[in-house]
Each structure stands twice: as C-alpha cells, then as structure tokens.
Amino acid sequence: MHGRECVRACFPGAMRLANAKWPASAKMCAVLAKEPLSGGRRTVLDWTMKTLLVPVDFSAVTEKVIEAALAQAKAFRGRVHLLHVIQPPVVGSGEFALPVEIVEEAVNTNKRNALQKLDGRLETFRGAGIECSASTVVGAPDFAILEEAAKIEADAIIMGSHGHGRLYDFLVGSTASGVIKRTKCAVLVIPPADKHG
C-alpha cells in the first residue's frame, strides 16, 4: 500500500481534510490541539472538526474567513458558530470620563448593527445546509474568543488576521496570536489580501 491508499486506510479523516477546498491564501498556523485526543500521539482522526467557532469583525478579511469556514463545515459536515466581539469604548476618568449612559448606548448600537450583519452570514451557511448560530459579546477579543470556544466546545477556530506588521504586533499584540498561544483547539488563521498584488 502506498500514497493515498495508505493514508485512506490508516487515517480515514485525512482524505476529507486533504480534499477540502481551502482558499489559496489559507495557512494553518496551529493545526494541533495541545492535548492529543488519542492519549498520546495525535492522529489525523483527531482532526475531525465538527464544531467550528468563526470570529468575524466585518473587516476586509471576513469574506475569506467565511469561505474557509464554509469549506471546512462542508468537508466535515460540521456546525458553525459565528461570533462578533465588541470592544467597549474607552471610558476615561475624572473630567474626561464618558457618562455611563453614552457608553451603554454605544455598546447597544454596536450589538444591534453586528446582529444585523450576522443575520446575513447565517443565511449563507443555512443556504448551504450547514447548521449555524451566532452571538455577540463585549470584551477583549482574544479572551472573548477563547471563552466562547470553551463554552461551545469548539474543535477549531477559523479567524482572520489583519496583517498590521511586526512592530504593531510587538507593541500591541494581535488577536490571532493571543488566541493561538492560549487555545486548546486547532486554529486556522486566514491572512489579509496581499497588499502588493
């Protein structure tokens, strides 16, 4: 037995993974969970991803993230949970502090707008016959994503990267790297469109 036959016989889930239609720009940044499901050595069978968490921020990379999630959900007959994280506005202190009512209204407006946008995305998945749900949360993006992943017992997180650059990531940090460092499930990071091409 050689090549595909060997892979097919030893790791049935591998063929679905290999044959999935991934966007050309997709890069697997953290494929393996930190704790193997098979009690020792990780196998391709452990990669079966049925529950996908898909954080979206409605930036330019969102379309590519949705495409990747759709391909993954189709390949593994999985379900998708879309998440939009709303960062609370900076409140300030002393005479520069924003009134609580203004902060609450800004957050509520952002939630309503996000839910409207998520409704359109839900239809994309449902139209393809994929079970899909959505939610919004308020907080720091990386921690909110990790908390939601644990809550829904996600097998994988499919998210975008903004490609701010190394200096920005060093000074501020990126949401994707924060998630990758702390998660216990697989992460697929979709890079932004090439700025030079």
TrEMBL record:
Pfam families: Usp (PF00582). Coiled coil: none annotated. Gene3D superfamilies: HUPs. CDD domains: USP-like (cd00293). Residues 49-191 form the UspA domain. Signal peptide: none annotated. Belongs to the universal stress protein A family. PANTHER family: STRESS RESPONSE PROTEIN NHAX, UNIVERSAL STRESS PROTEIN UP12. This is Universal stress protein. It comes from Oleiharenicola lentus.
